[in-house]
Structure formats: structure tokens, C-alpha cells
Amino acid sequence: MEKLIEQLGDKDPVIRDDGAYVSLEKFIKSEDNDAESNSLLYGQLLKEIEQKGKSIEHILKRSFCALVLSVVIFEDHKRFGNLSSSELKDVFEVIKDYINNEECLIEKDEKLGWIHCFAHIGDVLSTLVIHKNSNLSGEIVSLISGFEKRDLLGPDSLERFNAPLSLAKALGKCS
């Protein structure tokens, strides 16, 4: 798993998107992924998202680790229910820090492919809204509503970044 997580920061979209991401997603959704493996991945991915490097490899790795983390959280919601409200709050705090500090607003680059930092953040926030052990909807709605760079996001990033707002409303988890 460590090698695949490392490859999430690769500048080659074939290695990152078609290789590492697809392999991790398949594993997470497979019967081979048990509650313990899912929890270990949760910890590894959260640690990677906290890294502050400014190189494109760091940006890609944070972004794609966030995307994989959204799959981990969703699988926990669907199959395991092991992530506590406290652990989900930890994810929210890391993502809040990420939002406040990430400077890369690029959706896609001709050579690097999808970068999608804010789209992938939206994916994580969406899974936090729906997770059965989460009580973060109000905080997530406030975070997204108060985000000052929203007008600078591309259309796909904006749609996915705003998705938790619609989810929270649809699930009756916010006013």
C-alpha cells in the first residue's frame, strides 16, 4: 500500500490515476479490505494530507490522498462503522487546514492530467456529511459557505466542492 500511496504524487497521470488510484480504490471496495486494513489506510492517508510541501508532487499527493480517503470513509460508512465521530472530526480539521492553506486551484494540466485539489476536498467533505458516525454537517456547511476562493474554482471543482451543501440539505442535516 505504501508504494501505491507514494505513487499518488507521481506527475505521470498513467501511474497516478490509472495505476495507483485505481488499484487502491479496487482494494478498498474489495472483500480483501477488512475493518483493520481500512483503518490503517485511513491513518496513512490522513498523515499524507497533512504534509505541507509546495512542489507539484506534494500537491498531487495531497489531492489524490484526499480522493482515496473519501473512498475509505465511504467504505467505513457502508461496511464497517469503525471510524468514530472523533476520528471524523480529525479528518474535518485536517481538511479545514488544507482548504485554508492550499494555493493550487488548477483543475487540469495538459501534461499532469487532473489535479483537482478542491474537487477532492469536496469528495471528502461529502463522505463526512453522510457517514453514520458524523455530526459535522453544520461545520462543513459553514466552512464551504465561508470559503473566500470559491469564485476562483473551475466548474468541476466548484460543483464537487459545493456537493456537501446539497447533501446536508437533502439529508436534513442542516437548516
Verbal overview:
The longest helix has 25 residues, at 56-80. The protein has one domain (2-170). With 175 residues, the protein is mostly helical. A hairpin with a 3-residue loop joins strand 1 (108-109) and strand 2 (113-114). The chain has helices at residues 2-7, 13-29, 35-49, 56-80, 85-101, 117-130, 137-145, 155-170; strands at residues 108-109, 113-114. The model has no long low-confidence stretch (mean pLDDT 92). It is 68% helix and 2% strand.
Oligomer classification = single chain
| Biggest sheet details | 2 strands, antiparallel
List segments where confidence is low: pLDDT < 50 over at least 5 consecutive residues.
none
Count of discrete domains: 1
Shape descriptor reads globular
Tell me the Rg in angstroms. 15 Å
Q: Please report which band the strand proportion falls in: under 5%, 5-15%, 15-25%, 25-35%, 35-45% or over 45%.
A: under 5%
**DSSP summary, beta strand count:** 2
Would you spell out the secondary-structure blueprint of this structure?
Blueprint lengths: L1 H6 L5 H17 L5 H15 L6 H25 L4 H17 L6 E2 L3 E2 L2 H14 L6 H9 L9 H16 L5
Antiparallel strand pairs: 1-2
Helix pairs in contact: 2-4, 3-4, 4-6, 5-6, 6-8, 7-8
